[in-house]
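Journal club prep, shared notes

We agreed each person brings one worked example of a sequence with its structure written out as tokens. Mine is Putative ferredoxin. I'm keeping it raw so we can talk through how to read the token line rather than staring at a rendered picture. Sequence first:
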Amino acid sequence: MTVTVNFSGYEGPVTCGPEETLLRAGLRAGLALPYECASGGCGSCRAQLVDGEVKTLWPDAAGLSERDRRRGNRILMCQSVPTADCTVKAPILDGPTVSREAVPERVTSRLLGRVELTPDTALFTLDFRSPIDFLPGQFMLLESPDGVRRAYSMAHPADGAGSTTVEFIIRAKPGGAASSWLFDKVQVGDEILVEGPYGRAYAQPGSERPAVCIAGGTGLAPILAITEELLVENRGRRVDLYIGARMAGDIVLLDRLARLNELGARVAVSVEDPDFAGTEPAGWAVFDDSRVGRVIDHVADDWTDLSDHDIYLAGPAGMVDAALRALVRERGASADRLFFDRFIA
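Then the structure, token by token:
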């Protein structure tokens, strides 16, 4: 059933198709709606349902507080599928609609390969019938037959005309519904429903500013894509790439890090395990610097003033929040030149 949605503050009604979320319908219509994770965890797309009815994909989504739920009319646009004509009051972003971003679509892919990188992390390769366009640093939602949706970032830039094969770095979460499906049930050749691309923490074109790229855990995927794009676009640009992990063995795809080093990036790694010496995987020599401790502390140690830098962050929410505090408050990083994705557990 197709319904009509009016977004207060935006011109004209928006048509919303069957099983289409308010967020995707609005983005498809060219509205500059706020969002971050697009999967219910962050609350960035919180809005007020003024009139009408919606179906909630994830009733217990962490992006809504208990106070929001008590009000009864607060919704997450990324989790709300309208079941009747409705009116939504959503925040309006400053500035013009972002025209570079491809419109999110729901398409079917096939699992082409799953390669183990560590005991709990794998490189998934999906095959698409038609080329998929996306910006370096964006992500897609992978959806199970049971309706479980999780966001995963692409680990490389798209080809010039879009990519028919797309790679994701995915870590298994003990007891996680998506992990059980992706690691234990899906077989090579099986179909996987995908929605996207989403995300605004992508490589910004045309900037001459030096860049600092910081990855924690599987946040490596979007940072790989962003760093490659920055270096290919401007080989003379300074790019410092920082990788953080708990254990040395958690650092993966060292061949790709070596490639970025060859393109001109300075690559540094921070390992929280104080006894990691002697446990380094093959290819460790790619790193210009390796230290014990938190990656954010090492970035702060290396830079006293980041006011003229572009900064890209991807990793666990705690790491990103710590980085925002340390780099903006203490190192002068410009908030409008800091692009980040929090990976919601």
